[in-house]
Amino acid sequence: MRSINPSEHQIQCAIVDWANKTKIPHFGKYGDFLLAIPNGGNRSITEAIRLKKEGVKKGVSDLFFAYPRHFNDSMHGACGLWLEVKSKKGVLSKEQKEWIKLMNNMGYG
Question: SS3 for 20?
Fold first, then answer.
């Protein structure tokens, strides 16, 4: 049997593709609520400084799913889900572990 080993990029693209195709009653597509957080990748020092000034932070999860919470078809606040994408070989960084712990402590766990 052939082993499947998708990259983190391929996994994240598959999640986004699924979200863009899946409907939520009363709200549209899951993809309407799914955001990518551009924290990874190799960048020039100038670009890294620019992004840091814009609020990009090490360790923040790859995706955020901002899902509306509702009762009896009326909106009452919001909730969400942070998604960290890892391949089979992927390992959480120290900053990612800290972010996940912080988000868990804030009620996202």
Answer: helix
Q: What is the pLDDT of residues 1-40, one digit of tens each?
A: 677 899 999 999 999 999 999 987 777 788 888 999 988 7
Neighbours of 36 (CB within 10 A): 14
Report the alpha-carbon distance of residue 11 to residue 32 in Å, rounded.
19
Residues 85, 47: Cα–Cα separation, whole Å: 23
Contact present, 13 and 40 (Cβ < 8 Å):
no
Q: Give 27-70 as a 3 state SS string.
A: CEEHHHHEEECCCCCCCCHHHHHHHHHHCCCCCCCCEEEEEEEE
Phi, psi of 74 (to 5 degrees): -120, 145
Nearest to 87 by CA among 3, 1, 19: 3
